[in-house]
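Working notes for the structural subgroup meeting. M.R. asked for a predicted model of this chain before we commit to crystallization trials. I am recording the input and output together here so anyone reviewing the notebook later can reproduce the run.

Input as submitted:
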Amino acid sequence: MAQVSNQKKSVITPKVDKFFMGLANAYAFVARFFKEVFVPPYEFREVIRQCYEIGYKSLPLISLTGFIVGIVFTNQSRPSLSEFGAASWLPALISIAVVRAMGPLVTALIAAGKVGSSIGAEIGSMKVTEQIDAMEVSATNPFKFLVVTRVLATTFMLPILVMYTDFLALMGSFINVNQNELVSMPTFFVQVFEAISFLDVFSSILKSLVFGFTIGIVGCYKGYNSTKGTEGVGKAANASVVMSMFLIFIEELLSLQIVNAIRNA
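Returned structure, recorded in token form:
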């Protein structure tokens, strides 16, 4: 029995050590980002290029998804409201749902799948092909050029993408409501803006900044620490998506509790 318990301890202990070592490495990586971001030289041109890659090239997928979300959620909500004779509340319901939760969450999940995997795979391939080591030899700071620029780009662009998604979702909802309830555009958007408050908009933007930072830092961390050749690149891309989505759901839950506490105070 003593031998079995010793074997279990020997199996568990390396896993626990690996977990806490991973936390320590992630903390050091994030701390290094905040140290490097305020120290010159500043890679403004690379930040702008990454904003273009992350923001502009994500527009087709974001546009389609946001528009469909508005239409689908309106169709799904209409029967429930119609049972109570409250179909006229559809614009207010859609605006609250989209601005408070669906817009930021849907956009962040799409960005985690598209942008997070791209960052993880790109930096991971540079790591395993020793391009990062070559940058260090040539007196270039690879962390600032590769990591800081991408994290700043995701942090800046995600709130813009969220506002764009909110707009398209509301437009999709308006088209659906206009066809079924014959509600005019001014009437629809008056109800939309009456239903939301400054706290809703501010919390949505702040939450989007956190989501964008999470996607960027996780993708860069997984790519920067990838190993084992091309297999490691695939694992880095996959881990970037999975970990980003996991953290986004946790952050969504925490932000919901904080905003509700502020709203009820």
